[in-house]
Amino acid sequence: MGRWGIVALAALAVMGTACSPGSADDVAVGDEAATTTTRTPRITDDSGRPPVTFDPCYDIPDDVMNAAGYDAAKKEVADMPMGTYTYLGCRYKGTVKIPGVLARYDLTLLSGNVSLDEQLAENPTGATPTTINGRPAAMRVDPDRSLTCSYLLQTSFGVVILNRLYHPDYPGGPPIEEWCTDFEELVSSIEPYVTD
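Request: output the structure for the sequence above.
Response:
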């Protein structure tokens, strides 16, 4: 696994406290102060890369995530400042699993100033180019990351990665062809909130 893949996996393991709106500063923009705000990025780096302007813990409405079966009240910040690049992360736990009735999926979103091309060049395994609502993207199903499906969305600052982990209610879980089942619908509902 390449360095960007390692960074993404490491970000999954670095979990902070639950998100709270007080953690990020909103700054009014020009004469549109009443209707438009720009959030100051929680983390910046000294790389010269663009700042990460989409914050997955603050820029996706809670009702969108709750409707998709993720408890937005329990989302967790998972940031990774690296000096030469930055990832802002957010982790959501899925619905409570009911064997034979309701599957559980956990979701981690990473927003970084590493490009989609860099991500795919570093780890092309299982990646298929696609588009989400017209946005260039890739779907990745890596056999080495069991029961995980990822979508990578291109942005002007870099990439947004959505990793979904399936918790099956039976040994072994479904075949690899089913790891991404119904995930594109959720990704499509989140994409409009990804700011460039």
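DSSP finds four helices and ten strands in the chain.
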